[in-house]
Structure formats: C-alpha cells, structure tokens
What does this fold into?
Amino acid sequence: MFTLPTEMAQPVADFSQDTWWIWLIKAVFIVLFLILSVILALWVERRGLGRMQTRLGPNVTGFMGFGQAFADAIKLMIKEDFWLKGADRVIYFLAPVIAATCAFSIFAVMPFGPQVSMFGIETPLQLTDSSVAMLYVLAIAALGVYGLVLGGWAANSTYPLLGSVRSAAQVISYELGMGISLASVFLIAGTMSTSSLVDSQTSLWHVFIALPAFITYFISMVGEVNRLPFDLPEAEGELVAGHTTEYSSMKFAWFYLSEYINMINVSAVATVVFLGGWRAPWPLSAINDGMFNEGWWPMLWFIAKVWFFMFLMVWIRGTLLRMRYDHFMKLGWKVLIPVALGWLVAVAVIQGIGSFTDIDTQTILVILAAIFLVIFAVLWFVDGKKGDDGSSAPEEQPEFDAFAGGFPVPPMPGQTLPPSPRAKRAPAYSSTAKEAGSDE
Amino acid sequence: MTPVIDWAALAPAIIVMGAAVLGVIVEAFAPRGTRRPIQVTITFAALAAALVAVVWRWTEVQANGSQTVVGGQLIEDPFTLMAQGIVLVSGLLAAFVIADRTQTREGAFAASAAARPGSPEERELTRAGIDQTEVYPLVLFAVTGMMVFPAAGDLLTLFIALEVLSLPLYVLSAMARRKRLISQEAALKYFLLGAFSSAFFLMGISLLYGFSGSVRYSEVAAATTVTVGMDWMLIAGIALVLIGLLFKVGAVPFHSWTPDVYQGAPTPITGFMAAGTKVAAFGAMIRFLYVIAPGMEADLEVLLWTVIIATMIVGTVLGIVQKDIKRMLAYSSIAHAGFVLIAVTSFQETGIGATLFYLLAYGVATVGAFGVVTLVREKDAAGNITGEATSLESYAGLAKRKPGLAVAMLVFLLSFAGIPLTGGFVGKFTAFAAGIEGGAWPLVLIAVIASAATAYFYFRLVVLMFFTEPDDRTTVIASEGMTLVAIALAAVATIALGVVPGPVLELVGNAAVLLP
Amino acid sequence: MNPYTPLLLMIAIAAVVAVLGLVGTGFLGPKRYNRVKLENYECGVEATPNAGSAGRFPIKYYLTAMTFIIFDIEVVFLYPWAVSFERLGAFGLIAVLTFVFLITVPFVYEWRRGGLEWD
Amino acid sequence: MSLMNYVILAFILFAIGAAAVLTRRNSIIALMGVELMLNSANLSLVTFARMHGDITGQTLAFFVMVVAAAEVVIGLAIIVSIFRTRRSASLDAPNLLKN
Amino acid sequence: MNTSQAAAFPWLTALILVPLAAAIVLAFTKSLHRHAKAYGLAVSILVAIGAVIAFVTEFDTGSAGTVQLAETYSWMPTIGVSIAWGVTGMGAVMIALSVLLVPLVILTAESDRFLRPSEEAAGRRDAGYIAWVLALEAVMIAIFAAQDVFLFYVLFEAMLIPVYFLIGSYGGPNRKAAALKFLLYSLAGGLIMLVGVVAVYVAGPGGPEGFLIANLAGAVTGSQTAQMLMFLSFFIAFAVKAPMFPVHTWLADATEEAPAGTSALLVGVLDKVGTYGMIALCLPLFPGAASDAAMVIMILALISILWGGFVAIYSRDLMRLIAFTSVSHFGFMVMGIFSGSETAMTGAILYMVAHGVGTAALFLIVGYMAKRGGSQRIEDYGGWQRVTPVLAGGFLVAGLATLSLPGLSGFVPEFMVLVGTFSVSKIIGGLAVLGVILAALYILLPYQRVFTGPRPDIQVKDLGAAEKTVVGVLTAGMLALGFLPGPVIDLVQPVAEQSVAHFDDSSTASALTEGNLQ
It folds into this structure.
C-alpha cells in the first residue's frame, strides 16, 4: 500500500476539559431544544402558510395561536395507542423509535458556538466532534430511512408499504446528489469535522465559493426530508398518509416529530457546511473586533441561520406544487447527480491544477470556460435526439382514427387526437380559466 | 508516496479493460442494429492486441527480468505473462463461440436478459434479430479479472481480481436464450456460493493481514519466518484463502456449483468460464502457495490431500452416472481440477510448468468441446430447431451426420482422457511427474485410476458418436463459421500440443519463475 | 477523551426518550376495544388480503436501489480522498478522476438505455 | 477491552452469516448472510489495522464495501429476474437443476 | 547410442510413416474408397518389402543383441523425451511378424461376417477398416522399434485407438461393450504404467535424453520398495496386454466381437507388446525387482496356462476358445521370460513369433468359417470336413501347431520353455506340462465337433483363392518355424542372453541398493 496519513486532522474544537455531566447537560439540552423547536416550527408553519395563503392560521389557543402546537402535542400523547392487526409487532414498535432516535442523534455533532465557559469549564458549544463528524451525520440520516421503510412494511398494509418504498427510493436518490455536493465542500475545506468546517469559513462562507454545491444540496435536502414539493411518500391524495397511515398516538407523533427534527437537522447541516455555522454574518462579524463571534453570541447566529432555512422550506411549501413522481426522480438522477458530479470534478481539477502545477488560476479559469463551452455545445446536440438509441425516436405515426372500430376509442400512447372541431373556441376558454385559476 | 506506474507492464490488462469500458460506451450510444458488429470487432481486437502485448512483455521480461508494478500490487514475471497468455488464448477461442449465432441467427444469449421469457417484448426482439450485446463487454471484464488474478502481488489485488472475474460470470450465466429459468437458477446458485466462498476468502485475507500486518505476498511470506505465535492465524488464513481459490477451480467439497452452472449457463459461456476461470484460479493459487506457504507444506498437506483425493473421486464417480453432456463435462472438469492440484501442490518448479501446460491443453479442448455442444440441437415435432440437445443420447450417430465435428469432439475427449498424442496426455504426464517428484505418488496412483475411470464416460460418448445410429429427434446445425473456426483451432491445437509439445513445454518451463 | 463516548450517550438518551414516549402513551391513552379499529386502513373499501406481503413493486425500485448502491460506494470513496486531497497529490487526483470516469460510464449507459426513466 | 474481542466478535458474526447462508433457504436471506460475512471480515480487518497501527486494513475494508455492494447489486438483479420469471425468491423452489 | 550411428536411410521412420500416411490419405480421399482393399494391400506389401530390404541390408545378424537401425530425434527435451527408433533381433522378428500379418488380414478382409454383414455395405466401411488397420500397422512397427520409454508408452496407449475403433465400428452385436471393456482394461493398465514412467524419469539420470532405454537401464535409483513399485506398474500394464490371469477377461470378449482379422492382429501381434515390454523394459530397467518377483509371476503364469486351457475346453464360441488358448500360451511365454534360464527365454521369444503365426491362422480360418456358417458357436457346426476340406485342413494344421506338435511352429519354443523352467523349478515345470495335455483337448475336441461327423446339409463353398493364399502362407510359416527355427533363434538368442544377464546382475544390483540405503 501507499504510505497514507495514518491519522486524520483532529477537529478544531477542543473537548479536552469535558466531563460526563457536561455531556449530559449538552445532550439533554439538545433533546429539549429539538422538541421545542419542532413545536415552534409547527406554529411557524401554520401561521406562515396561513399568511401566504391569505388566511389566518391557528390564532385561538394561546398567544397568536401558539398554544395550538402544544395542544396538538398533548392530544397526540393521550390518544389511544392501538396495535394494528396483522402488523409485525416488534418492527411496528421499533420503526418510530428508530426514526426518532436517529433524528435526535444527528445534532450531537452540530456546533452551536465556539468555546464558552460552562460552570468553570472551557468547552465548545457542541456535544462532540470528530474528524468524520459529517460522515456520522450522513450515516445516521441514512439509518433514519429504516424508520420509514420498516414502519411502512410492518403495518402490513398497502398504502403504507407503497409510501415507504417511495420514500426509500426518494431518500436514496437525493442522498447521492447531496453526498456528492458535500464532497466538493469537504475537498475545499479539507475536513469533515463540523467544527473545522465552521472554522474554515472564517473569511469566506462556502456558499459563495461553492454555489452550485449549495444549490444542489439545498434541493436535495428538501427532497431528503420529504417536504413539498417532494412530499411524494405521503402524497395524501394518493397514499393517504404514506408510512404513517397505520400509526396512532405517540407512534405517529414520533414519525411526525422526526420529520420536523430532520428538517432542523438538514438546515443545521446547511448552516454548518455552507453558511458559516455559528459565525456572525459579515457586518456583525466586523463589529468590535469580532465580539459577536465569541462567547454565547454565536448560538444566536446559528439558530437564526437554521430558522432561515426552516422558513425557506415553509415558504417553498406555500409556493410550489407537489411534483409528479417521474419528474421528481428525473430531477434527482438526471440533474442533481450529474451537476454535483460535474461540479466536484471541476473543483478537484481546479484545486489540483492550482496545488500540483505552476499554472495560475487565471489561466485555469479561461481553459475551464472553454471546456465548458465545448461540453455545453456537445450536450446541446446530444440532447437534440432524445430517447433510447433511436428505438423510441418519433416515428411517422399513422393518423389516429378515433372511430377505427366503428365506435370511439381513446388514443394509444404516442398517438395524438385529431384537433377537435371545437378547437377554435378553446383559446378564449382557456384564457379565462387561467385568470380564474390565478385568482385562487 | 506517489507510486510509479509502469504502464507498459499493465498494457495487456489495460487493453482488455479499456475495450470493455469502450464496449459499455458503445452500448450506450450506438444504435441497436450496429452494436453487435462493433462489439464483436472490439472484442476480437482487444483480445488479439492484448495477446500481442503479452508476447511483447514476455520478450521484455526475458530480456530485462521480472519486476513489480504499481508498488508491488501486481507482479510482472514470466509466470504472470504465461498465465495471461493462456487466459487470452482460451478467451479468444471462446470469443469465437460466443460471437457465433449459428444458422438459426440466434446466439446463445437472450435477446434481452431483462425481458421476461416468453413476453411479447422478447418475441419482438427475437424477431428483429436483436441480441443482448452486453455480453461482450462482460466477457472482456471477466477476462480482465482473469488476467489480473495470477498477476496479483498482494491479497487486496487478488480479492478485487477475484470479484472482477466472478461478477460478470454470474451475470453471463443467467443470460441463456433458452431454458432461461435453469440459466437464472444456475446463476443464482453460482452467485450465492461464489459470494459465500468470497467471504471465506476475505476472512482468510483478514487473518493473514492480522498475522503479518501486510497484505503483500512477500511481506506475509517474510512474516511467516519472523513472527512467533499466532500460527493459528497463519494456517487458518491460508486455509480460508485456499477455500476461495478451490471454489473457483471447482474442487470438492467446494464443487457443488459446477455441474449446475455448467448445465444452466449459456454453453459458450460455460466453455469460456471452464477454461478461463481455471487458468486464473490455478495461477493465483500457485503464486499464493508458492510464495506464502513454503515451509508449511506439512501443515497443509492433510487439507490439500483430502481435497485432491475427494476431488478426483467425486469428479469421476459422479461423472460416470451423468446423462447430460454439460454435466458430464462439469464433473470431468472437477476431476481435472484434482489432477492439476497434484501438480500445484507438488511445490516443485516443474509443477508450475506442468500446471500451465495442463491448463492450456485443458482450456483449449474445453472451449472446443463446448463449441461442439452448441451445435447439436433438438428438433420439435414440427422440425423446428430449438435448444441445445444436451442429453448424451443426442450425440448418437454424430459421426454419421457430421464426421468432422465428431472427429473434433473425439480429439477433445481423447485429450480429456489423457490418451497420448493429445495435449491432455502431455499435461497429465507433466502433472504426474511433478507430483511424483514432490513425493505425492499415492495421489498420482489414485489419479491414474481416476483417469482410467473418467475414460469410461468419455468413451461412452465416443461409442454413441461413432458406433450408434442417429435418431431424428436431434439435429446438428451449421454455425456461422466462427464456432467452426474455434473448434478447428482447438482440435489442431490439442493435437499439436500432443505431438509437438516441445516448444510449449520449453515456454512453460521458462515461465516457472515466480517473483514474490 | 474518546470523542465517540458522547455520541453513544446522545444516542442512548434519544432512544430512551423515544421508548419512554411510546410506553408513556400506553398509560396515558384510553383503551376502547373496537374490531374495525385494528383493521388496515383501506379508504373504506374492504381490506385487500395479504396487502403488505404481495411485494409487487415496479421493477424500477430495484433498479434505483442498485444504482444507488453503486453511487453510494462512489461517495464513500470520495470523502476520504476529498479530505486528504492535498496530501494525496496529483496521483490521488488522477486516480479519483479515473474512478469517477469509470463510474460515470455505467451511469451514462443506464441513462441512455432508459434505466432512469420513470414511466 | 482487548482488541482481540473484536476479532472474536467478527468470527461470531462470520459464523452467524455462514449459518444463515447454509440453513436459510430464502435467497434474499442467504444474500444477507453473505453480506454479514463480508462485513464481519471488514470488522476484523479494521481491528487488525488498529492492532498493527497500519492503514492497509482500512483500505481493504473500503474495497470490500465496494465489492459487497457490487455483489448485492448483481445478486438482487439475478433474484429479481428469477422472481419475475417465477414468482418466488425461495432457494428451495428452484429445483430444475437436480443435484 | 546417438544419431551418428544412424543408418544412412531412416528405414524405421519410413516404415512407420508410410502406412500412417497411407491411412490418413485413405481416410480423407473419397475417390480411393472404392479401391480401398487394393490400396491397402499395395501399401502393406510395400511396407513388407521395405522391411525385408531394411533388415536384409542393414541388420547385422551377427550382433543381434545390440540395437541397430537406430535413429534418435529430440522431441520434448524439457522432460527428457526423444523419438528414438532402433531394433534388436527380437524387435526385428516382431516387426517382421507384423508386416507379414497385415497384408494377409487385408487380403481377406471381405471374408469376415462382421465387417461385411451384407455386400451393399462395402465401400466406405472397407475404407475405414483398412485405414485403421494401416494405422495400426504403423503403431505396431513403431512400438517394436521404440527405444525411449516415454515414446514406448505413448505408442502403447495410442495403439488403443485404432483397435478400439476396429472393434467398436466393425465388430459383432456386442461390439460397443467389448470395445469399451478392451479400452478400459488397457487404459487402466496403461495409466498405472504412466506412474511408473514418470517415476522412472524422476528416479533416473534425467537430462534431455533421460527417457532413452539405454540411458535408463541399470540407472534407475531408489529403494527396493520403490523399484518394486515401479516394476509392478510396468508389469501390470504388460500383464493386462499379454493377457495373464487374472486380468485376461477382456480378451475373450474382444475377440468374440471383433472381426477375425482384428483378432488375428490383436492376439497375434499386439498382445505380444506385453511380453515384449517385459523383456525390453521390465528386465533391463528393474533387474532387482524382476528377479524378486520372478517366482510369484511364474506361479501366476502357471495359473494362466492351466486356467486358460481349462476355460478353453469349455468354451462354446470358437473365437473365445482361441482367445483362452492364447491366455494359456501367454502363460508359457511369461513363464519363460521370468524363469531366468537362457533356454526358456529364447524359447519365450520364439514362442511369441510362433504363436503369432499360429493363432493368427486360427482366427482367420475360424473367421472364414463363421462367414460361411454365420456363427462362431461350436454347436452350430458338424461334419464340415466333408464340405470344406481345405478349410478343415488349414484349421487342423494351425491347431496342431498350437498344441505343439513336433515339426510345427509351436513345438520348439514350448519345449525350450519347459526345459528352461525345469532347470529352475521342477514343480512348476511339471505342472506346466499339464498345459500341453490340455492343449490337445482344447484343439482336438472342437475339431472333432466342428469338422467330423456326417455331412451337413448346407451349401457353402470351400476357401477361395485369396483365402487359400493366406492359409498357405501361414502354414508355410508354421512349417518353417517347425523345421528350421535356427535363423530366428540366432536372431533372438543374443537378446535372451542379455536379458537373462539382468537376472544374474540382480543379486548384486539389489545388494547395491540395499547398501546405499544403509
């Protein structure tokens, strides 16, 4: 074998003084933080969506309807917890536990802030970190899928099963784009430790260097947590409620909760990886020699950034329609993965040429631009003839005869209906329809 | 830090693998109708070019000596090149059979392996004369694995090569045009047992690594003399790795896949894998045993002797009762594995040459024999030619129908039986000579009795072919030409190896140089 | 200090919370037996027998799973390389680019042959 | 905790996997058994790597993961195609090949 | 021995290649098929003439014990194999026997009921048969000329293929089973010999000519046990070939089903390869082991003599009967070889020739008869003396030669063997004499049943011209060997002398190896 570095670079954050009770405090804090955040998120989502849809949203219980979220939570807890007939009981029970455990655990490596003094002990605002912290995040996230899949499977019912299979396909499809886009950031930063990632963004956030990666990641992350426009596993119109259909009470609550925690998780990852983590945004960071980047302040910035992403997701939900499944898979496989891969290769090559040769950056960029132009031109032509090797190339179809057998028949795939005799009236009609639709 | 890569030394394997990758790209972009000609061209060109490259490297190595490549992961020595040469020769011969579509214009492979048998989609493709042309890149990938397998200089490369050679074969096994379910089940069995043995292989690697702290053969070998204690790890590691290799060569008790896979796989693939896999696996086994195990013959003797004796006996005894020619050849291959193992485990320099020669003779004859099998077909009541007629009875009167084919088959069978003036005889002779030289005369004695017994089932087939009248349920179809070329080349080569083996013996004798 | 001990602690706490929630709700909630309640939810239609175990999924799901496995492995290889990019140098870069190329070839193949179409 | 315990654990897992392959007749379970065996080998590789303070074992484990993945893919493909041809994934049911 | 000693013209190579090439040409030239017999006859006579010229001009009768007409070519130097031809007196007479019998067999090829079940089946069938016979002739000449152990082994095995096809393609109703039985017995024996061949090379001096008999003789090292094992591996193969009790059973089946010409060649010449091998290989290579095992082998030979005789008496099939008489005769030969007496050894070699002529005659004549009578079973015949007097006369002469009537070929060798054996062991010699009495029974009883008695009501012709020629030539041969055995004895006696010398060396040889061991 080659002589490889035997030890990876250690994370920047220094946990040397931590004791077991510090860990306990942090861990309990994380759990509480997440549960409260979810309740807040519910409220934000309902109110926000209401605003976007020009209605009020919950506004009766508590201050501005804030109590409604708590009420819902308590209601779920005291609902009857039933055990479905024919379910695989062990897995039926285990699935929500897995989902919830995985959702909670991811935050263990999220840095809320830099070193602070806690009961006299210097410790980072982060439960723990390691050189492969991001790998841990991805691993646990992937493990969380088991909750969904097993939940759907254990119920021994049609809709949940379909939902869970869809969700598995979806999560794994988007995980690839996400993983590859993250890899390009790791390449730039040279680390996978969360605290070191934040550290590497001291001068410049990654979002500015690696915008394509950020965009890929952002789309993937929405897909990853099954949010609109990618909420196909639960598409209530088709699948009732996906894998949660057969769950009640706390079992359902954990699924529900884990979904929202996962939103927070991916937002936190986006924050740490692309948005400088707990670092204060530019004008603030310049104030008083970086005062806002020390002590407990950064926790504020971190949470703010996470909520920025949370809000984005709510906003998207209020704006976009659910995608069709084939479009959705196409987006994942044919756009996100190639883009992420291409971006990764580009980053690697630029980095590589910069590091390992004497060519200066200016030249590289010019050459790259030329290459991209060529590729773009090639793709332009390749894309021209779509479909599988000509076999599905548009052939001269015989004109469709709707009354071939003496009675009206629908067109086969690939055939088009002849223009309706009433076609002339259609434009006027559709324009009115469009106006009517936009009113809603 | 950065290893120096001698690309020239890698050339043979890279040519084949590059062609395989190119084949995949062709599959992606070439229009359906043009794929087959392109793929066939690429395959033959790549194999021939690789053969040329091997010859070139041979002269280089003879002139400049052996070397390690990519920091020792691969070894380029005469042995490597000879084994690669044999793989390529078998592969090239097999490619002729694989590419042939016979007069029926239907190859041995499913029109579309993904289409359900009997589905309208499949009928459509069959009518259009479309083949599953992925076969060719897959074959090339398998050849790559086979070429790297004996060249591997460390256990990691060995493992990767094992998988590279196995995985395409699993897939290829499932692609028979007819009797698809049998084919798929054969593939499944092959796959599961293959993966199972890979796991043992891997555990063995892990133990050897645990023992020595390295996966490099030379370092493991060095550790055997230095490290004290932990001997169980070494022995268990070697034994487990051997299990993986013995599985690949079909030695008893790791043979149970052989008859089923030989029977179920498309016949050209059966020939290809019977020839190629054995060469590769025995090549790897020789390097592994001769580099790591010297000094431990005594520890391994019980294991190896048991395996060898069982292999020979099971191969012969079960071969006698077979009624299907492909199964019969499978058991014969098991018995042959036993014979080769005698040479391999002799731990003599002559054993290396003997193994190589035996494998060449066996590989050539095997490809030819399975080539013949592809041409004997069943006829249904309406006189339509259907699948291969693999029952032994189908060969009745072959000499009356197609004397040339029957004579070729006779040559292959004589070679299998080890009758003088065929390559098989010289192979057996050299193998047994190595065995006796290594002191394994009891094994040799059992081997000769076993080979007398194997002769029984070969000559039963000869009786059917030459002394029995043909019936009208079977027919012999004409090939497009390529299978005939393969059969003719194989027959000529088999006889040439028997009559004038001198030059080849000298070559393989020169190849018995192992660089640890 | 082992950095992984807190991780175990976190996971343990999370699991305990999750299990406690489920156990607690068993005490908190009412228990009213109703045969229909325990049936599968089928939108009011009579339940499909063996609904869950039929296992009739479109073949595409398997294909997606297989493709995913291959790409996931690619990602696994990319991470360590990305992190030690500088130390591995030009050789590592070329090796990984070759690797990515080799993975891309089957991806392109699958794409062209319609493996990524959901129709 | 001695590192040897990990090796022993690996052996146990390996044995469990092997038992699964040998005794369970469902091909998917058998496949899982094989995966378990491969991963137990990984575990022991990584343990040995730790023992020797050498990275080769970890590298090997990476390759094993690739191979395991490729094997799963091919195994699944074969099983699915059999399943499509005959609606069952049991190892017992395929019996066209006599033993 | 080296190439410089080689004859000016490579006679032996020519003698081997001509029939081989002729066989291949015949097999692949369709236009020749109709004239296959004439072609075969011409080739075989040409070979016979060539052999005569070669031996007359090049062979020095004075030094018949040394290898002459030698040629050596390198073949597989890596494993010490060369192509080495050369003959001693013994080889020369065996080759002469072969080249004599082959034209005779071809001459009356159509007088065989199996080969020619009906007249329509001629043409291609004849061509195949004659091609195989010619190929067989090539192998026979080659094997008696081989001076390299490996080459000998190769030919020993290669010989199976033509015989296998001669039985399997052209034999009687059970030919497939008989052919397979023949093949498997011979192959098993041959493969056991292969172990010995390999071991001999490993234990021998090695080198690029390590397989030459000349280089190996007296140079095979190894413990006494190893020597004995190697000797046995060779001996078993030869015992199968020269059918000795208890591995003789294949012979009766083969001859029963094979065409008469094939049987004649098989028993007349091919089986002699066994006894030839014992003399040419076993004795020089493993003198110690040979003399150690001599007594056991002689007892086995005795059993062969008696057993073969007894079974022959009770045989109902004439071909089987002749086969069993041969088992008995081979017993005499083996006994002579291992008796260690020069007289017996000379007798044994002479016996090989005499038996070849006599048995071939018997097989051929019975074949002519079976063609006419449509059966080989004794009970189907009776009184044929009156219908076919020439045939009956031929049978009687050949039979009498077989039972060693003085004046015919069998007498001298049998007498010599018995005398030699007596000098070694009175008991064995005495019991062997019983074989002579049995011989009278197994020849005269069938003669009585088949040829004597009332004239049967059948319409068959007596022997035709070709058949008469064959019987005439063979009878002449028997008479010649009976009255004038001198020239042949002169040829083989030096060989016997040398061979017996190995027994004399053996005590010292084994003492030497034992000494090495300690």
